[in-house]
Each structure stands twice: as structure tokens, then as C-alpha cells.
Amino acid sequence: MNGRDDWYRNTDWNESIATAFAEKLKRARDKEQYLCIQASCLARNHPDVAITLLDQYFQLPDKFDHATAHTTRAEALLALGKVEEAVASYQAALKREAEFPKLRTLAYVQYPYLVAVRCLSAHYADALEVLAHRKNDLLFPVDHFMWHAARAMIRAAQGFPQDAREDARVALEAAGQDHSGFRFHPKLGLVSDRHAEALHRLRAFHDA
């Protein structure tokens, strides 16, 4: 993507794209915004580049969107297989949100979900605390799914099968929804194939 208005939303990356982006960025006013958006577009397929761009972002004075930058870094770190570093980035995002509660991300479900799916038992207590604290923030079906899926998997691992079954039931109901509940964005925020592993485990809890 190299159009005049989408120079900071490239989904691919090479030397010529990098050069063009750097030239545009040099002349841009809101460098922080463009670095953060471009990093988010590259986090999965070009994670090393995304992290380099975020390093530039964090060196700039404007700290407005730090929470989002931390979640993007977490996504890039996961793409590189650096799970514990991704956990630390999600925790940094949540810390930032606690300081600036008007600017929030999905870290409150992404972090516990990661902890649950990867069976990171050292973080179970903290993940459950985050879930309990932010339950009222749930909006889309995928948010409800991730919240209850995380809790179901953690409670099952802790030896509470009845709790796990109930949360699995609610998570599976959310996964079955085919409408977001928003008139103009009916397909936004639905559960996708990205959650196949969790769905498989939840069905096992539910049917036990």
C-alpha cells in the first residue's frame, strides 16, 4: 500500500517501502501516530520491523497512545515466539491504562487469554484479577468469548471443573453469535478461526 493517504498502513515491507515511509515520516507532524499505526499493520507478518518502529515511537515525547503501542508490541513478540516478553508488554499496557483510564485497549482480555491458552500458571492469579476488574468493559462477542474462555481454562487448570464448565458454556454461546449487535457493523468483533484451539478445549470442558 503506497498511496498518498495510506503510506503508513503498509502490510508488506521491503527496502523501497521502508525508504518511502521514512521520507514521509520525516515530514509528518504526528510521527507517533504514524509509527504506531504502521507497526500495527506489520506486527504479525513483519514483527521485527514492527518492534523497530515501536522503539522509535517510544523515543518520541508524545505518550498519548502508549497502551496501544504496548499491545502491538505484544502481538509482534508473540509472532516471534517471545511469550514472556509479550506478557510483560500486555502488563505494561494495563498499567498505562490504569494511569490514563480514558484510553483503553483489549489488553484486559488479550492478556488473560494468552495466559490461559499457553498455560502460564505463574500468571493465573493476576489474569483472574484483571478479568474480574474489567468485566464491565466487555462489548463485542469476541470480547465476551475471550473473557469467559480465559476464565474457563484457568479455573479448569486450578481444579474447579464446575466453574470451568459454566464459563465454557457462556464462551461457546458468544462464539456462536453471527451478529455483533451493532447495526452498521454486523460482522465486527466476531469469534474467528484464530480461536480454534481454545474452542476445542472449551468444548471438552463443556461436555465433561
Commentary on this structure:
The chain is mostly helical and 208 residues long. It folds into two domains: 1-105; 109-208, no CATH class. 64% of the residues lie in helices and 0% in strands. It contains ten helices and no strands. The protein has helices at 15-27, 31-42, 47-59, 66-79, 83-99, 107-117, 124-133, 141-157, 161-175, 196-207. Helix 3 (47-59) runs antiparallel to helix 4 (66-79) and helix 4 runs antiparallel to helix 5 (83-99). The protein is elongated, with a radius of gyration of 18 Å.
Features:
elongated, mainly alpha, 2 domains, 208 residues
Count of discrete structural domains: 2
- Supply the number of helical segments: 10
Percent of residues in helices comes to 55-70%
What's the overall average pLDDT, rounded?
Answer: 94
**Tally of extended strands?**
0
> Which parts are unreliable, with pLDDT below 50 for 5 consecutive residues or more?
none
- Biggest sheet descriptor: none
Strand percent estimate = under 5%
Silhouette: elongated
Write the element-wise H/E pattern from the N-terminal end onward.
HHHHHHHHHH
The structure class reads mainly alpha
Radius of gyration: 18 Å
Q: Summary?
A:
By secondary structure, this protein is mainly α. The protein has ten helices and no strands. It has two domains: 1-105; 109-208, no CATH class.
